[in-house]
Amino acid sequence: MRKIYFVLVIFLSLQTFAQIKIEGVITDSIGLPLEVANVVAINGESQLLESFGISDSQGYYKLNLKAETSYQLKFSYLGFKPKEFNVTTEDQDILFDVFLESQPQNLDEVEVVYEIPITIQGDTIVYNTDSFVSGTEKKLEDVLDKLPGVEVNDDGQIEVEGKRVTKVMVEGEDFFDGDSKLAAKNIPADALKKVEVLRNYTEVSQLSSVTNNQDNIALNIKLKEGKKKFWFGEISAGLGNNDRYSVHPKLFYYSPKYSLSVLTDANNIGEVAFSGRDYWSFTGGFKGATNQNTGTNFNTTSAGLGLSLTQNNTAKSVVSKFAALNFSYKPSRKWLLTGFGIFSDAETEIERLTQRTFVSSNLLETVSTNNTQNVALGIAKFSSRFKPSDNFQWEYDVLVRSNKERERSNTLTVSTITDVIEENQDQKPVTVSQSSNLYWTLNDSNIIAAEIKAENATEDPFYQSIREQQPFLNFIPFDQTQNFYNINQVQDVTTKRLDLKLDYFLITSPNTNLNITLGGIESTQEFDSSIFQWLDNNQDLEFTSEEFKNDVEFNFKDRFIGLYFKAKYGDLTINPGLLAHRYTTNDEQLGNRITRNYTHILPEFFANYQFKQSESIRLNYRVTRSFTDINNFAEGILVNNYNVLFSGNRNLESALFHSLNLSFFSFNMFSQRNIFFNASYNKRIDALKSSALIGGINQVRTTINSNFQDESASFSGNFQQTFGRIKVGSRAGLNYSNTFNVVNDRAQNSESFNHNYLLSLGSSFVNAPNLEIGYRFAVSDYNTGTTNSIFYTERPYLKFDAAFLKHFILVVDYDYYNYYDKADTVSNTYSFLNANLSFQKEDSKWEFILEAKNLGNNRNLNQDSFNELFFNTSQYIVQPRFIVFKLKYNL
């Protein structure tokens, strides 16, 4: 590994050898500096872009160029006549000042500006993708990784200036409702012409001046001319060793009137196009253009069965099928119809070995698990937007989710006893959500916004465990004469929820406005459950006592009114607010009904100081009330898994949550430096916490309002600097939590401190191979008062891509892991080496690909986790080495 780093440093050093600097000031005709003016240097011999720059607030620019070379320097600025100069460099730096003459904007000028690498127009940054790519890129994510200030994280989500992109559009229309991961993984790189970063984005232009949109970032993808009004895409298929296969057709059509995108995939090489995590987090971009924080946290959304999630899809085996369709249609200029449908079917085999240490007793449990998951996911949405004028907009959305989940597990647990357990889980939840939003500008001073959302959901989780040893002694009256203990549990949950919100904005001056908001939540849930034992004679023994059944109805109501004031004083924007809530909870079970009423005043404060156009610091403080739903109120016993029983608590009250956040970001286009940090502090009072009675590995849990205050703090920071075609990056993340739990009627204090760091160095040459190396280091420190465990992960990595011999492209990705703990009880080193070699002749539609995964044939990876009752260190079996030959046809 050290040799690899040494070679890379030498390689990067050679790329910057024998360079000189051209610098100067760009002004207008009266000598005033022009900020964000564009400068490009075209090599006179090759006619290729050699370097580019953007002037700073003083009009200063700088270019690093080769010595003894002829260049064409092009200077441009919106609203000014562009200029060109021929310059031949020698072995000394050159001072070169330029003034531009003002002129009305015309089509020729727009064309010149549009071709330069980066253009800044207010809150919009436009990247010309051809200025950054080397030809090795295959998907949108490959291109985005080479744009200054843009990243694709390990989860496939796009980030700009440290903020997550929540909406992606193609030619101004949502791509699968704006999902950034689907866009990054599927839009072909060769179709891109421009990438537009839209900062402070809002879908409702009427509210842009009265709402806070600083965290809203969208991307708009502009296509090449040959990709408009024509079908384009690709069809690929491949076969490999050990019966590996991959089929991946995708088609696109875009025109001003309508668009259509079709994505399909079927493979058994571990590539999950749409995971369960994606399904449950799929929100579809910005919905509800007003402030969505009402001071109440009441979550009724199911999270599925809680199936085991694989790490980077590296399970023992994954067989995946995926199909998706997205469309948009404009019946008129005032009316837009959009929609999508997504289906995913995945069978996943997971094999893991876990060592679990219980906090209260230091008891060690070793768990060996083999499970198979079958998950079929379906989601469909239809949207309508009617905007007859700039003063009126109406939206309607309907979203349907339906999925079928099944998990079959075989577990060997070794602690004070040894037991072999078979577990089965099934569920078919369905959710239908509808929303309607109206935004109406009455006049220059008055705006009304009305938003309504209705949701209906059903869930039917089923659980079964079959084991030799009698579980939960003295809690459940099992028939002990049976050969096996076959435990079954059925549940039915229905949810009906309505959210209403009405906002009135009074614009009192160009820099101030008032916002009066009122609304509420109305929720009704019903929950039924029962437990029975399946006997050897194929009869069931149902436990009819009230403590083993649930028949519960739970109602939650929230009525609120709030007042916000927003003002801008120069570069400072403040937005304080106050919300008054009247809450009512009502639960009926065990033959009686309990009603509770609460009144709370919740403050909120937001401040933003804008140092420059792309540099600001932001403070956010919120107080929220958190309520649980019916699952924690139902007092009948539930079987959570093979060693956990749960009983709810109908005496629960709300928890108070204080959140303080400070963030800073600076994106300097002149120096191509990107800095951001985010620090937060959270305190929970009367927190909804788990209380457990633990005997050996068996647990009986309930939920309580804690008498102790939980605290957590976090910090994340990122620094990225580009020197010509060399990019240096660093990142740090720190998370600390101090929590209390009740175990065996005693308060248990637990602390965790997780911190991770990243250093990276890479190149982005257009006509040369590119390398990126990095080093990640992570520490997980868990302290329970009686036990302190510290785990370390060292992870150097390397990425390489090169185009060679005219028609070949090689891409290599290497990750090395060194996982160990401070006590020297765990130690594992492993690595993943993936490579992709492709061949495609110029102007040919056919491409031949040789893809190899896990070339080192690594067989496992490690992961650790912590909660308030125990901490785990686990080893997962992963897919073995495989090689696939693919054939791709580009439409």
Q: Give the end-to-end Cα distance, rounded to a whole number of Å.
A: 41 Å
Oligomeric category:
single chain
Query: Could you tell me the radius of gyration in angstroms?
Result: 30 Å
Strand content: over 45%
Helix fraction bin: under 10%
Main structural class = mainly beta
Total E-strand runs: 55
**How would a textbook summarize the main sheet?**
38 strands, mixed
Coarse morphology: globular
Number of helices: 5
**What would the average pLDDT be, to the nearest integer?**
89
Outline the low-pLDDT stretches.
Answer: 106-114
Descriptive tags:
891 residues, mainly beta, Immunoglobulin-like, 38-stranded mixed sheet, six-stranded mixed sheet, 5 helices
Describe the protein.
Among the domains are: 19-103, Sandwich (Immunoglobulin-like), CATH 2.60.40; 233-267 and 313-350, no CATH class; 707-891. It is 4% helix and 63% strand. The chain is built from five helices and 55 strands. A hairpin with a 6-residue loop joins β5 (70-76) and β6. It is globular, with a radius of gyration of 30 Å. 32% of the residues are buried. The model is unreliable at 106-114 (pLDDT under 50).
